């Protein structure tokens, strides 16, 4: 691997802080560091609370993007799902409108206000119409008993419009129990469980779909390797990156042989700005592969000079961790 020095990364380092259109994951501003290499730009954007070990995978992904490049694509256009944050039914419908032409919506449920969750699902289903599909992401918030009850009641409301339920419980072993006991035909997807528990063997006995993300998995090549081991339908998803980080997600979706369908790579639409002038957002429900280069004007517009030293320190600590392994 053409591994850059810390000085090479630091020389081109740019730090931006971009406001979100709606609060997401408890944050209202997305901070991102970017650097340039011979293959283009890379994004280093672990969430602020992440430790050095977790952040090191994000750094490896950014370095791959700028200094290594990606595997050859098997497809040039990636179908995209809308991502609907937690909120009221009105906010859900407003969020759906950002994702132009998307026929699949992924809805985050909080798990505690199930009547409100049901109202949001119904509101989104009404806008999507008959050919729409809905994915529910519980982010591990249910117990096994709650998951069985919630999934059954959501199936009663949505029927076959419900494409799958993602990470119903926190652990893979709980999800396996739900998978075994569930009496309605709703596929289950595993997201956090793959990363946090390092699951790659026999996952297809436990769930029906695997969600893969580039940055938390240390880059496109690593994630593709996991996809090949899993040998089950894959959905590629993102982590609130700018178009620079999103391009890596598209590279994975383009290279994965066993892609299920729409991918969660439309989240640039949740940002109130971007670092490239023609953002990687869904048009007619899909994004085509293309080169992305930051605009200097946009890097300046979203620059966060008061955060630059913090990110330089984080880059240094993370790089040292990465280098020692
Ligand atoms: Mg998820």
* Coarse structural class: alpha/beta
- Treating each run of at least 4 consecutive H or I residues as one helix, how many helices? 12
Task: Please report which band the strand proportion falls in: under 5%, 5-15%, 15-25%, 25-35%, 35-45% or over 45%.
Answer: 15-25%
How far do the termini sit from each other? Answer: 14 Å
Which ions and ligands are bound to the chains? magnesium ion
Radius of gyration: 19 Å
Fourth CATH level, the homologous superfamily of the largest domain? Enolase-like C-terminal domain
What spatial form do the alpha-carbon principal axes imply? Answer: globular
Mean pLDDT: 93
Instruction: Using the coordinates above, name the CATH class of the largest domain.
Output: Alpha Beta
Q: Your description of this structure?
A:
The chain has 325 residues and is an alpha/beta fold. It has two domains: 6-71 and 296-324, 2-Layer Sandwich (Enolase-like, domain 1); 77-288, TIM Barrel, CATH 3.20.20.120. It contains twelve helices and twelve strands. The chain has a seven-stranded parallel β-sheet. The longest helix has 20 residues, at 305-324. It is globular, with a radius of gyration of 19 Å. The two termini are 14 Å apart. The mean pLDDT is 93. Magnesium ion binds at residues 137, 139, 166-167, 191, 211. Magnesium ion is lined by residues 137, 139, 166-167, 191, 211.
């Amino acid at each position: 691997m053409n591994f850059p020095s810390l000085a090479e990364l630091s020389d081109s380092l740019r730090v931006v802080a971009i406001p979100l259109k709606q609060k997401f994951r408890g944050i209202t501003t997305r901070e991102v560091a970017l650097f340039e290499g011979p293959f283009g730009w890379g994004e280093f954007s672990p969430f602020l609370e992440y430790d050095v070990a977790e952040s090191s995978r994000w750094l490896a992904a950014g370095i791959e993007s700028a200094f290594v490049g990606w595997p050859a694509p098997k497809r040039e256009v990636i179908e995209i799902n809308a991502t609907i944050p937690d909120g009221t039914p009105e906010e859900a419908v407003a969020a759906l409108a950002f994702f132009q032409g998307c026929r699949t919506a992924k809805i985050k449920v909080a798990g505690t206000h199930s009547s409100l969750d049901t109202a949001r699902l119904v509101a989104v289903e009404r806008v999507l119409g008959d050919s729409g599909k809905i994915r529910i992401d519980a982010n591990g918030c249910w117990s096994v008993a709650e998951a069985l009850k919630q999934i059954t009641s959501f199936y009663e409301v949505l029927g076959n419009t419900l494409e799958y339920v993602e990470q119903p419980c926190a652990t893979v072993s709980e999800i396996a129990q739900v998978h075994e006991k569930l009496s309605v035909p709703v596929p289950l997807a595993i997201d956090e469980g793959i990363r946090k528990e390092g699951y790659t063997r026999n996952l297809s006995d436990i769930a029906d779909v695997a969600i893969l993300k580039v940055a938390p998995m240390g880059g496109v090549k690593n994630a593709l390797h996991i996809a090949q081991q899993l040998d089950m339908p894959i959905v590629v998803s993102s982590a609130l990156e700018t178009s620079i980080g999103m391009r890596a997600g598209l590279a994975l979706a383009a290279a994965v042989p066993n892609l299920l369908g729409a991918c969660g790579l439309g989240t640039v639409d949740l940002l109130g700005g971007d670092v490239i002038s023609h953002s990687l957002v869904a048009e007619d429900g899909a994004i085509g592969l293309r080169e992305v280069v930051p605009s200097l004007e946009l890097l300046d517009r979203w620059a966060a000079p008061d955060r630059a030293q913090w990110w330089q320190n984080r880059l240094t600590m993370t790089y040292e961790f990465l280098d020692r392994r």
